[in-house]
Amino acid sequence: MGLFNATYALSGQIDTEVVEGERLARHTSYRIGGKADLFITCHSYHALRRTIEVLAREQVPWVVIGKGSNLLVADTGYRGAVVTLGREFSHFSLDEEGRVLTAGAGALLARLVNEALTRGLSGLEFAVGIPGTVGGAVSMNAGSRKEWIGSVVRDVVTYRPGAGIRHYGRGEVTWGYRTSTLPRDEIVLEATFELEPALKQDIRERMERSLARRRRTQPIGKASCGSVFRNPPDRSVGAMIEECGLKGYRVGGVEVSPVHANFIVNNGTASAADVASVIQHVHRTVKETYGIELQPEVKFLGF
Q1: How far is CA 187 from CA 155, 156, 176, 213, in A?
Q2: Which of 89, 121, 184, 241 supports an S-S bond with 195, CB 3.0-4.6 Å?
């Protein structure tokens, strides 16, 4: 693995920031995780393309992350390069008709929701309070079983390493609960959202209702990755975990949230090993009780 060569080739490049031995706990909502060999911020498409080309040439494993809101990083960290999107990928623009909003993949989803409100555009109210970036939200089709971001996506632009930019129109992507047919080996660069004009007061009221529901039913303020498991068809994971008597189950500094059992929270002293242990215990108990193999939403890095 040509880690030294990759570091040398990328250090000092335009629109590229390279940090060695960066603690990934600083970059995840779990506030957990060891060091990455390299942490690279790419502020432009050119910088991203060059970075991926260098890493591939030097056979350095790499992964792209947003704000780490659904990511669990091992205590030992990640032997490779973690790449994140910077300035050029945080833009917003509105078309001439005032209904189509384009956002860079590195922009915060919260900013996108507020941009829509500011411009009197409806369709993203359900996403208020969901953490992370636009790119991450589009990649995982963030939302609930009833409302998800893919329903308002018109276009997606991606980068396919070794091939270049790709464009996907609405009819070329199939969206489902926590899924889409966007290729997993491509990096989302930006997305375009087709929204409906509405009164700002009406939009704000829907956002407030949605946020109030989240605050009432989720452990807001606790370090977590959000929902740990996907809901099986016609079942609630939270209800099943609660029925198994696992609310409040603890290992070290980790706890199955007493507020919502599909949230596993860091009470301040958790390790990644603690979180993984709780996830495995919940998974095993639900399978033994219901015969259902739960599918994790959380992504694991460095395990």
Answers
A1: 14, 10, 19, 32
A2: 121
Q: Select from 216, 240, 260 the last residue of a domain.
A: 216
Domain stops at, among 187, 216, 245: 216
pLDDT > 80? residue 87: yes
Point out which residues pair with 85 in neighbouring strands: 42
Known catalytic residues are 178, 227, 297
**Mean of pLDDT over the chain:** 96
Indicate if 32 and 95 belong to the same structural domain: no
- 170-181 mean pLDDT: 92
Contacts for 152 with CB less than 8 Å, ≥ 6 apart: 123, 124, 193, 194, 195
Number of domains composing the chain: 3
DSSP state string for 150-182? GGGEEEEEEEETTTEEEEEEGGG--EETTEE-S
* Whether the model pTM is above 0.85: yes
Q: Which two three-digit tokens encode residue 8?
A: 């040398």
